[in-house]
Predict the 3D structure of the following.
Amino acid sequence: MNKKQIGNNFFIPMPVVLVGTQVSGNANFMTVGWVARANANPPMIVCGIGNHHYTPKGIEENGTFSVNIPSTDLIVKTDYCGIVSGSKTDKSKVFDIFYGNLNTAPLIKECPVSIECKLVQITPLPTNSLYLGEIVGVWVDGEIMADGKPDINSIDPIFLSMPDNRYWNLGEHIGDAWSDGKNLKLND
Amino acid sequence: MNKKQIGNNFFIPMPVVLVGTQVSGNANFMTVGWVARANANPPMIVCGIGNHHYTPKGIEENGTFSVNIPSTDLIVKTDYCGIVSGSKTDKSKVFDIFYGNLNTAPLIKECPVSIECKLVQITPLPTNSLYLGEIVGVWVDGEIMADGKPDINSIDPIFLSMPDNRYWNLGEHIGDAWSDGKNLKLND
């Protein structure tokens, strides 16, 4: 066995989203790579966001936020929103904005998918906090729908690996979940 | 604008891991697609796991778990661990196992990366719970190291999209974080 122990700050590529908030009445967007589904029913999302950021102010102020999924063609604007803080720079004009069911969760027109969340709970951790939100609306571009469902290839999402800080696109459909494993014969 | 509202149970592809536990002294592995980094320092991971599963018993019993990252060549065994419950089937022989710093967090030899976690907190939600763990050890195959760092292409991770339940591989390196956005000129 050739296993080596490396530093503890390593994980595989994660999907990149733009978290939208309204801070003191102004729309703001922050790039977030630490996001996952959290609860099945009702559907919830959890985001890990650094405590020093501007975005938590908007989440706490309104109890709402949005999770927008950028395509790879938005990579420059997406990265910009992770470099520049809303505390110093007005990011409300970086994207065209629309609203769904909530009037304090700005959604990004250029993103193929935008998700509206109502804040459920904040879990403070040493350097970050977990923002748990219930999904109350999912908005997609009509153009990315295929057979009545969003087409993952058309969404063309971005992934981020850390600590090497590289963006990746999605590869190919390589298998089917709750299906391929039925073929396993142990002791093969 | 051509935005449509769809059902709330939609999200983009997420990385797939195998969560390892020891239940009543026996190793068990479960496929988990709802996982993200949670805290920067100390490094933490959060997993959303259905409350009806067998894995939570092991996490609660020992206060430890592992997060193993399978390559695409392990897709059949990975999917199998998401179909079959440890409550009915002994999954301890599906993989070769090794241990790192914790003696109750079984690690998978065939996975290029295995992460040991100490349980920090459980957040119960309606159908799932969030298991927050501090990373206390990261073990990688020597063969996947390049320039002293794990090579993401060699890890060759699996992603899962839901609710269409498809597995995907990673695509190409398309940009650099905290870098590409420096080139943004607004009003271009």
User: Anything to note?
Assistant: The first strand of chain B starts at residue 3 and ends at 6.
